[in-house]
Amino acid sequence: MRGMGFRDRFASLMARSMPAVTAARRETPAPPSLPARMPADHEPTGLIQVFRAVQVLETAVSALPIVQLDRAGRQSIADGIVNSPSLDMTRRELVSYLVACLATDGNLFLLKRRVGDKVIDVMPLPPREVAVTDMSADPRRSDIRYSWRGLTFGREDVIHKRLVAVPGRLRGLGPIGSCRVELEGMADTRDFAANWREEAGVPSGIYTTEVEISDEEADDAKRRIMSAKSGQPLVLGKNVRYARTLLSPEDMQFVQSRQFDGVQVARLFGIPANLMLTGTDGSSLTYTNIEQSWIEFSSYTLAAYADPICEALGELLPGRRAVAMDWDSSRRSDTGTRYAAYKTALEAGFLTVGEVRAREGLAPLETQPDKETSNAQ
C-alpha cells in the first residue's frame, strides 16, 4: 500500500466494482426506501447541552494533526491510506464521524475494503446497526463476528474500538448509553417547561368573593372574565375579586434546573464549563485556570477519543508502524509559550531550526550568502 495514492486506490476500487455496477444497470432499480427515523427531539443530541458537547469533541479531535511513526517511534512520511483512509469522505470528516460514534454509542466500526489482498480504504459502519457476537464455545479462544444488514464479517474484516471497555461486554460503553435515564429526565424537564402554559394544569387566574354564590353565578362570572376584551373595563359585581396566577420567566422555564443540567452534561463528557458556555457560581476564570483546564481536557478527555481512532488507523499499516495525534501545539495555549519552549529546545540542542519550522508548518530556510561575499560581487 505504500506509495499508492488516492487516485490509484480509487481506480482499483472502481475496477473491482465495475462488473457489479454493469450487472446492476441491466435491472430496473427498486425505488429507495428511507429507514424509519426517531424524531430529533427524542434523541439525546436533541438536547442543546449534549449537541454542544459532541460538537466540541468533534471539532477538537478532528483539528489535531495526524502523524505516522516508524518502528522506532520516529515520525515518518505518512502513507496514502493514512492521509485519506476513506474514499467516501475526507480524513477530517471521517475523524469527526468516528468521534460522534464513540460519544453517542461508545463504539466505532470500520469495514476494510480490499482489492486482492491489499486494503485500499475503510468504510465506517453505523454503530447502532452492528451486532457483535462471540461464536466460540471455548473460553480460551474467541471467535468474534460482526453482523450488519444481513452480512457477517470476522475480525480480519472489521476494526472495532471501544471508548470504555466493560468486563463481560463485547460492545463498549459511551457517556450517553451510561446515563441515558438522566438524559431522558433532562429532556422531560425541557418539554415540561416548553408546554407549561398549555399542559401544566394550573389555572390562568382565580376569582374570590366574600359572599356565597351559586354555580350559575360562578359560571356567569367566569364567562365574563373569559369574554373580556383587552383594554375594556371588566365588571364582576357581588364583591368578586379576580387575580391572575403569574410566574416569572425564570420559574416557567426552570432556569436553575436546566443550568444544573448543563453542568451535569459537562461533567458527563468531561468538557470544561467555559467550552460548554456554562458558568458555575463562585468560579473565576483566569489565564492560568483556562490553560490548566485545556491541558487536562486534552489529556483526559480528547485522548480518550483520539487514541482509539489512532489505533484503528494504525491497523491499516503493515509492520509495526503506528499512527498518533500531534498534541504539541494543543497543550500549549498561546504562541509565546510555544516559542519559549522552542527556544529552550534549541538552546539545549535536541531540536534544530529546521525541525522547529517543520513543527510550525513553515518551509525550510533558504541558504543565504555571506554579506562579505555579496559585497565583493
TrEMBL record:
Q: Name a Pfam family for this protein.
A: Phage_portal
What InterPro entries does this protein's entry cite?
Phage/GTA_portal
Quote the protein name from its UniProt record: Phage portal protein
Q: Which organism is it from?
A: Bifidobacterium lemurum
